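Title: Prediction job returns without error message
Component: structure pipeline
Severity: low
Priority: P3
Assignee: unassigned

Description:
Job completed but the reporter wants confirmation the result is attached to the right record. Sequence as submitted:
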Amino acid sequence: MDNHPQAVHEAERPHERLWLRRIGFAARLALYGAVFFVLYKSVPENIIDRPLATLTIRHIVYPLLWLLALLMLIKSLFNPVKDEAVREDWGKFGIAIIAVAVVAGAIFLPNIVASFHAMHP
C-alpha cells in the first residue's frame, strides 16, 4: 500500500467536492426540465391529415428533429454521465446559472414589483 501524500490526497478526492456534484445534479435536472418545457411548447403540427402534395421540407424535417431531440433528452436523463469531472462541471454550470439568476433578479425585480404595485394600488 502506498502511503505517499499524493496517493492519499487522490484517494480522498471523490468526497472533496460532493457539494459541487449535488449542485450539478440539480442544475442538470433544471436544464432538462427547461428543455422539456421548450419541446412541449414547440410540438410540431399534425401532418398525418395533410395531403402529401402540400407538405414542404420544413413540415417533414421539423417533426423528425423534434423527435430526435426528445429521444436524446430522454436518453441523457436516464443515462447520466458517471465521470466525476463531468458531474463537477455540471456543478460549475449550476453555480453560473445561480449567479445569472441573482443578477437578473437584481436588475428586473424592482421593475416587476413597481409594475405590480401600479396595477394593484
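Comment from assignee: result matches the submitted record. The CA atoms of residues 21 and 88 lie 5 Å apart.
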